[in-house]
Amino acid sequence: MKIRRLFDILDHYEQSFKGKDDVLAGKENGEWKKYNLKTIREMVDNISYGLISLGVKKGDKIATISPNRPEWNILDYAILQIGAIHVPVYPTISDNDYRYILTHSEVTYIFVSGWELYRKIKHIIPEIKKIKGLYTFKHFDDIPHLQELINLGKNNTYPLLLEEKKASVLHEDTATIIYTSGTTGNPKGVMLSHKNILSNVMNLKHIFPVDETCRALSYLPLCHVYERTNIYILMYLGVSIYYAENMGTIGANILEVKPEVLTTVPRLLEKVYDKIIAKGRNLNPVAKGLFFRAVRLGEKYKYDIKNPVYLLQLKFYDPIIFSKWRAALGGNMRAVVSGGAALQPRLAKVFNAAGIPLVEGYGMTETSPVISCNTFTKGKRKIGTVGPPLENISVKISSEGEILVRGDNVMKGYYKDPELTSQTIIDGWMHTGDVGRIDKNGILQITGRVKEIFKTSMGKYISPALIENKFKESPFIDQIMVVGENQKFAAAIIIPDFEFLRNWCAQKECKVVSKEEMISNQIIKKRIKEEINQYNKYFGDTEKIKKFELINDEWGIETGEITANLKLKRKFILSKYNDLILSIYK
Predict the structure, then answer these.
(1) Is residue 214 part of a domain?
(2) Closest-CA residue to 208 (of 181, 186, 239)
(3) Are strands 490-496 and 477-483 parallel, antiparallel or unpaired?
(4) Into how many domains does the chain fold?
(5) Model confidence at 59: pLDDT above 60
């Protein structure tokens, strides 16, 4: 069947795959609660009937504020099939952002996961006149619950009216407004149509080497278009989707679910890699030697490598080292797809050498989201790049080096902001704000952000993200931001990896206890300076980090240093640490 609207995926699923009890699954009270397609479709239709009974019309906006759970997807389909517009909101944003998004989008109904999120917004709701009601996914006394809406729908079924409403939803209609977290100013409402997102689904479905016999573990927020589109793709392919309980349980959930596919951001892979390396350091001398020889071998990996000696060496280390890494990821992993931020090439090399197929893609909310992606097909991938552009998407590099995109995946525009839309989409080309290059094989590489690249007082341009990504390969460094605009040289603010440092200090008999002691300890500073010198070798003289300062803060979403999709808020950080930065250059 031809899929023209996102909710058509449910019809496709019913017609293409055998019934199973775990189309979607989420954990409740320590047990996996599974949903088959029949239950999902009944819930979707009953929620739609309930919304119709409440007077929800085509074009009305409905918000969700919730971590991942099957009900999120079920509600999503119910909203879309009556022509309403889904406004997913991050659960971790500030009061001001909640107030702005819920007001600006003219939301009429809100769905929240439970008491904690209800408590965060209940004082805001009376300020917003358009809001007519709120429901929770978890049951709490005195707060309307999703089941009440389902019961309302059961008692007021309108099959013919629902079919009319579904038929009225067009390919080009707005399906969702997603507010980008942004590094400055108010969030921007990105309008994406059914056509926009489905173009991505159809252009990506062949990349995932999975089928209806497979399971996926999902932990990235569904309110971000990256994971949301991934879920549509996996449902199109008939893959069972299990939602991790939270970030802290991913490791345990992977061992329970044993998934074949995982979509992720580099941050999780960095943490997994650091844990693997930490275990390797604690092995006995013989095992430790073997372990790190295997790691060094992995760091030489290239896609589609044919060197028989190298492949024989990998084969030797596989049963004694790499097989244990695969077992820690469930033992069945066919595909790990990374996006959202730059992936350290070292991680791509080592994971692939270990038999954990890992590829990197690139995109943005405004492009639904994927623009390009490495694949699991020979010749269609290259480590250190984001792969070839998807089929039916045109990509070119402007004279200033900016990546421009044209295709069905490009957004309809920014909600209530035609001026910004016209500044961003010019003659049909989406200006991404990213700087990059395309090699002779048509593979795209990102080299920085237009607005993040700065010039030193010597007139030399520096792309901080490129430098930061390389330096984060160091086990001593957790977070880093490169500074130096209009200064004589590049410098950095560094948050050490304190967990790694504690282990290092114990081995070196360096007696420190607190984080404050660590960042002021001269032995530690000297060791990190050695690390800086080592990674400086990868860069030209003007890009080298000449000075640095260690801090013992944690950068997070709620404290304002990081966006909801884990990018640095550079202006905020520059302002917060202005005195520290000035002291570097005195």
Answers:
(1) yes
(2) 239
(3) antiparallel
(4) 2
(5) yes
